[in-house]
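User: Structure tokens for both sequences below?

Assistant:
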Amino acid sequence: MTAFTAPIADLKVALFATCFNDTMWPETPKAVVRLLERLGCRVEFPSAQTCCGQMMTNTGYAGEAVPLVRHFVDVFEDYDAVVAPSGSCVGSVRDQHPMIAHLAGDPGLASEVEGVRPKVYELSEFLVDVLGVTDVGAYFPHRVTYHPTCHSLRMLRVGDRPLQLLRAVEGIDLVELPGAEECCGFGGTFAMKNADVSVAMGTDKAAHVVETDAEVLVAGDNSCLAHIGGILGRQRTGIRTMHLAEILASTKEHPTW
């Protein structure tokens, strides 16, 4: 990770919204911008950004991801930090991009990737490790439980950073999720290739969520929330799903719910 000594306002921060958030859950990247600007960051949204290439790589088409890796470098190389509300996509940039550049046999691209990837952060990492904050001034008076998604937990190793941030939210009733570290069963294309297993895993996760009597299930990846939330919705539990960014962006003056 890159260490910064400059004032927060002097950091040139880019929002990497990720393609699925931009398309399906735009309120999440908007919440990231509101939150970071409230903390004093100058945030830009490079409009040329697109997919990080994870879908191609995960399905065995790493060669098709090479142009996307090149484009990612071109879009984000001039920023001090790149922040994304997705452990999955940040994991792809930091773990898969070097592999893709190596497979492409392009030392120049590999060097460029190594220059960019240490600057790419999942939201909770950026808040806790770079900005050095856990209390972001949020207010969310609801009973909440947290699901640590697999990529953030196992690939990025964000640890308890999201929980540190949630514990500092004013008014929140944060309850532990039983079996929290068990996969929800989404796993991107896994949910399509192994639908029955995926649904069974998601049903187990949903049952644990119901056990907590939480009003809201929160996580750092909307893809996992969509999977679990779909099951909770079909069961008519009344439990909402919200991205971590939306809770942290919530204030008394401007509540997200």
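Moving on to the next sequence.
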Amino acid sequence: MTASSSALSEERAAVADACRRLGAEGLLIGTAGNVSVRTGDLVAVTATGAVLAELTPDQVTVVDLDGTLVSGTLRPTSELDLHLGVHRRRGTGALVHTHAPMATAVACVLDELPCIHYQLLALGGTVRVAPYATFGTPELAESVLTALDGRGAALMANHGAVTHAATLDRAVEHALLLEWACGVYQRAAAMGRPRFLDERQQRAVIEAALARDYGTTHPVAPAASGSPVRPVQPVRPVPPVQEGQR
């Protein structure tokens, strides 16, 4: 097996794994939805008509950036134009398209999902809703590309949701985060008028996250049993002793 074919096999398996996870989370129902990942000038993408929650690597097709079949025996998803459009414009990365229930419901009502929680800043903040167009059409692909500009996610009016990230794992996490945020919005709206984070509050969150290296693990110093655990402090050099201080 060549290095190239080995890489394609790994990507096809990863796409199948991602689909099964999304299915287990309830974001993919039956054959509705599609997932892809780009490696170099090739894209591994789900086949049309496959049951995504049970997807196997042989149900993932490999195409080039023009859509020409490179590997696999099944026709790629009907949303191939959307996937290739994003991959051509954004370079390497992965795309997840779902008909997740919360996200789809919000996309049937709103023109954009406001920044209802600071975790949406991981997607770029406010999530735009691309205007409705028939599935699989160039018009839909173009409107979603526009909605994704500067964002990690977009909603599709009366259709579903799309997330994009540098890695497949991150694109899946973005899809889960978007579904969670849409659920929070729906529950908040049912109780009253939701509050949203304004630009000043969003900037403050970004500054705090950068200062604290938010979202990453940090080691702590060993502590005796029952003692509070304290973060490891950086070692600072001891200043030289000055004449007269001895």
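User: Anything stand out in the second?

Assistant: The beta strands are 34-39, 42-46, 60-64, 69-71, 93-98, 112-113, 127-130, 153-156, 160-165.
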